[in-house]
Amino acid sequence: MIESFNPPNVWAPFGAFSMGVVQGEGRTLYLKGQVSLDPAGEVVGQDDMQAQVGQTLSNISAVLAHVGGTMADVVSLTQYVTDIEAFMASGAVRKQFFAEPYPVTTTVEVSRLYDPRLMVEITAIAEIPRDRFRHPNKP
What we know:
By secondary structure, the chain is α+β, with helices and mostly antiparallel strands.
């Protein structure tokens, strides 16, 4: 189970994130940065940050589900965005994927991603309880 915390002597979170998260006894999963690609490798939501955030988080959810995880198992996100203002306006999309306790997050604006049509890349760390974890390479 995840326990989030927001120390009273640090600024209060203003969005869907926590200052710290503690979790234990599970399997730690480090996810490669996901972008807004569909299963065929085509960009979803060109020029639409909200659509790209939604597809990117859907991809993260699919990777987690493959090994028995859920978005509630995510403890940390690092988000690379090409337009920080557009990303900040996509909070409602994030809330479709996350509930309290929110994962800790870091968001960095970058000049571009590997494909200029992409606006966001998100990498995640999750801890999946052992009783739900399914090894990815075993039937």
